[in-house]
Design brief:
2 helices; 7 strands; mainly beta; 117 residues; globular; 4-stranded antiparallel β-sheet; 3-stranded mixed β-sheet
């Protein structure tokens, strides 16, 4: 999927913001990813994610090491067809109708680590 994103063949979405994080992105991130074998398991929620309903993949900011401060984060690529990922209906906005914005829920979403088969 990464080559298709880089080439512009497909559109991706970027999930940084969370419902209770406000403008302090790093200290407010509650979405957690933990390792289980060759996979990451993600639990949390994201808010106001542009194009989540039309992109085949979403890059999700997760806390992967609670003790590492600002270095304890990872960006994980999540296929939008992954079990446990809920893309909620688009937000109702006054403008920007060509740019749909969604809430996401991640409940045990599994992502293979790079190089894992």
């Amino acid at each position: 999927m990464v080559p298709r994103l880089i080439s512009g063949e497909v559109l991706g979405a970027l999930a940084l913001t969370e419902p209770d994080a406000g403008s302090d992105l790093l200290s407010g991130v509650q979405t957690l990813a933990r390792r289980e074998g060759d996979e990451w398991v993600i639990d949390g929620s994201k808010a106001w994610i542009t194009n989540a309903g039309i992109a085949p993949v979403i890059t999700v900011l997760c806390r992967t090491d609670k003790d590492a401060g600002a270095r304890g984060f990872s960006m994980l690529l999540v296929d939008t067809k992954s079990p446990g990922l809920t893309i909620h209906p688009p937000e109702k906005k006054m403008g920007l109708k060509g740019s749909p914005t969604h809430m996401l829920s991640l409940d045990g979403v599994r992502v293979r680590r790079c190089g894992a088969r």
